[in-house]
Amino acid sequence: MEAIVLAGGMGTRLRALIPNLPKPLAPVAGRPFISILLDQLDAQGFSRVVLSVGYRHEMIRQALGGRHRGIELLYAVEDQPLGTGGGIRLAAQQCRTDEIFVLNGDSYVDVDCSAMLVVHKARHASLTICAKAEADASRYGGMQIADDHIVSFTEKGSHGPGIINAGVYLLARELMLDPELPEAFSFERDFLARRLDEVKPLAFVTKGAFIDIGVPDDYVRANQMFLAS
Question: How many domains does one find in the chain?
Fold first, then answer.
């Protein structure tokens, strides 16, 4: 299996806690957070990961090098911010497999990627999104699911329980090589929302742990979670 990890975030909201580091290198339980993600991918049998990087990418390359355990590491460097969609599109040009996993470099999701791939192929999906039930979906926005497919998205801010996009995607590489796609765009807003009826993404629900370190409270909670594990 092959993955793209979006690791270009500046970590603006964490600047008070990690003033001199790009967000993927934020220390969690004494280690760079991205190392925890790569450990997870290695344990699940991934052999190749393309890191989509931008802000202080030299620090990330210096910290990780060209290999992490059994995983070959490559780097897709954004000379200027391309958004999540542009970052995926750039990194996909270095991928070899027809189906690619895409993960956010600032969140951890306990999901069985092999099982996700089996379902994706069995349902002949071009895009599968990992979904997670949350007691309060207000920070993330929600998704409505019918017959295992995502039929709509709801905006952030509505308090209460909901199914959220957990930020792990499995997609056909050809989706990102479409010449009609712009160089810079948001995968969530400009691709998912606008092409929902066309792509008909499949939902793969996980009951595993999920945490996003993008805000100080959850960054502190992530440290507690991984120190206790």
Answer: 1
* Residues 162 and 142: beta-carbon distance below 8 Å: yes
Q: What are 138-166's pLDDT values in tens digits? A: 888 889 999 999 999 987 767 789 999 99
Q: Encode 162-210 in three state secondary structure.
A: EEEEEEEEEEEHHHHCCCCCCCCCCHHHHHHCCCHHHHCCEEEECCCCE
pLDDT digits (tens, 9 = 90+) for 18-50: 778 888 999 999 999 999 999 999 999 999 999
- How would you classify the pairing of strands 142-146 and 48-53? unpaired
The predicted-structure confidence for 159-186, as pLDDT tens digits, reads as follows 789 999 999 999 999 999 889 999 999 9
**Which structural domain range is residue 89 located in?**
2-228
DSSP 35: H
Which one-letter amino acid corresponds to residue 146? A
Do the beta carbons of residue 73 and residue 47 sit within 8 Å? no
What's the CATH code of the domain at 73? 3.90.550.10
Residue 154 three-state SS: strand
For residues 94-113, average pLDDT: 96
Q: 142 pairs with which residues across the strands?
A: 154
